[in-house]
Amino acid sequence: FLTDLFLTTSPNSKTIQFETWVNKDGNFSKVGKSKEMPSGAKVVGQSVFADFDGDGQSEHLLPVCEDETCQKSAIYLTKLGLDQVM
Q1: What is the distance, to the nearest Å, from the Cα of residue 39 to the centroid of all Cα atoms in its chain?
Q2: Which residue segment(s) compose the domain that 46 sits in?
Q3: Is residue 86 part of a domain?
Q4: Does a structural domain hold residue 34?
Q5: What is the tens place of the pLDDT at every residue in 23-50?
Q6: Domain count within the chain
Q7: Which sign, positive or negative, has the C-alpha torsion 66, 69, 75, 81?
Q8: Residue 69: pLDDT band by 50, 70, 90 thresholds?
């Protein structure tokens, strides 16, 4: 029942990255490499975590805007440990 850690980082003013850290016996270990924000995203919304597909593991849901005025939006869903974005 130890908490894991999810970070949204900005290594420069043009990109946003996501990092997942897993708590193993009180020590945090980074899982995989940092994931870039979806290509074409101009504005990134608030991350949401839940078991959307009922498999017992939480997924990362990320709402984004594909233009500056947010007239065109999308929702991305990723699974921990996979590079695939749905």
Answers
A1: 13
A2: 4-79
A3: no
A4: yes
A5: 888 889 888 888 888 888 999 999 998 9
A6: 1
A7: positive
A8: very high
